[in-house]
Amino acid sequence: MDNKLKIHLLVNEVAGNGRAKKVLEQTTSLLINQNINFDLQKSNYAGEAIRLAQHYGNQRHLPNEILLVIGGDGSLNEVLNGIKRSDNPSTPIAYLPAGTGNDFARAADLTADPKVLLDHFKENFEPDEVDCGSFTLPKITAEQKYYFANSFGIGFDAFVNHNSNISKLKKLLNHLSEGKFIYGLNVVASVTKQDTFGVEIERNGQKIYFDDAFMVTTTNHPFLGGGLPLLPSAKIDSHKIDAVVVEKFSLGKLVKLFINLLKDGSHVNDPQFHYFEADKIRVTTMKKEYAQVDGEEIKPNLFNIEFSVSSFNLLR
Ligand SMILES: Nc1ncnc2c1ncn2[C@@H]1O[C@H](COP(=O)(O)OP(=O)(O)OP(=O)(O)O)[C@@H](O)[C@H]1O
Questions:
Q1: Is the pTM of this model over 0.90?
Q2: Tens-place pLDDT, residues 113-131
Q3: Helix (H, G, I), strand (E, B) or coil at 130
Q4: 151-310: same fold as 2-126?
Q5: Signal peptide position in this chain (predicted)?
Q6: Checking DSSP bridges between strand 37-42 and strand 6-11, what pairing results, if any?
Q7: How far apart are CA 3 and CA 177, in angstroms?
Q8: SS3 141
Q9: What is the DSSP string of 116-146?
């Protein structure tokens, strides 16, 4: 049975500041020792995994061939977009989390241990259909559909993400700790600098307007920023998409919300915390703000986006 497996590794070696490289080494040595067929492709630049995954999805594969991604949430996002835009969008994706945040793996309860995953493949290669988010952006020639495994955030969380990316401390702290710690530090550093903005949420034909939003995050699951449970009720198999709007708050209120978020999730009951669940949610912002999609930065812009729930096949 083992020898029938064929693993196609797609790896972002720079993910997780070297973590992906280590996971790749562990995985290839297990594959060699267990005499499992494999090939290996590495992304050479940001964005290349979209093209590589799309190419993989355009080819015919036997059920015992497995596309195994090693990287962080950004790498998974690229592969998801490549597969979904390919001729075979239901091509299953297997994923070993090796980034700094690994929020999707947390939400989908994925193992980070290559041995556990390979042992599992020997018993079962039936994928599970799980949710992802999708949205369309106008392009010069035609509309392009995009997908996300985690979230599309506008405002505060995107600004924190931006500050985390430029932080000189990031590299050092990544070596010392989990992404959550870096994110937490940047939450505090960014809170006084983030402005507020008008945002309209439209779902099921109903429009709700917020004058002073601090952030609006459309999410596929609970986690943000490396394990912070922003919306505990969001699930990757709910077949719904969720949007969270947090209105302007003081530094004192931030501390209270943050403690409640970590303690028992009761921050969701705060009058300044709003959440919506639907098949489709349109988010319109009135001021240029940073955005992030699966942790990848989008420069400040005005957004008018309809998000909807989509799905992909996940092997775990
Ligand atoms: N060879 C490469 N050189 C530079 N950047 C790359 C290369 N291959 C992929 N990338 C980019 O690296 C970025 C970071 O990857 P990824 O998000 O997977 O890791 P991470 O940021 O460490 O993890 P996480 O998102 O879980 O915190 C992605 O934007 C991806 O496009």
A1: yes
A2: 999 999 999 888 799 999 9
A3: strand
A4: no
A5: none
A6: parallel
A7: 38
A8: coil
A9: HHHHHHHH--PPEEEEEEEEEEE-SSSEEEE
Amino acid at site 239: H
Stretch among 33-37, 171-175, 256-260 having the lowest mean pLDDT: 171-175
**β-bridge mates for residue 229, sequence order:** 223
Q: How far apart are CA 137 and CA 153, in angstroms?
A: 15
- The residue nearest atom 10 of ligand 1, judged by CA position, is 46
Over residues 268-289, mean pLDDT: 96
**What are the respective helix, strand and coil percentages of the chain, to the nearest 5?**
35, 35, 30
Rounded to whole angstroms, the Cα distance separating 294 from 71 reads 13
Is the CB of 23 inside a 6 Å radius of any atom of ligand 1?
A: no
For residue 278, the CA-to-ligand 1 centroid distance in Å is: 30
Question: Closest by alpha carbon to 308, among 91, 157, 152?
Answer: 152
Give the whole-angstrom CA distance, residue 148 versus residue 296: 11
Q: What is the mean pLDDT of residues 219-238?
A: 96
| CATH annotation of 2-126 | 3.40.50.10330
Q: Is the pLDDT of residue 1 over 60?
A: no
Structure tokens, 83: 């597969």
Cα 141 to middle of ligand 1, angstroms: 28
At the topology level, CATH places domain 151-310 in Tumour Suppressor Smad4 (2.60.200)
- β-pair partners for 67: 8, 93
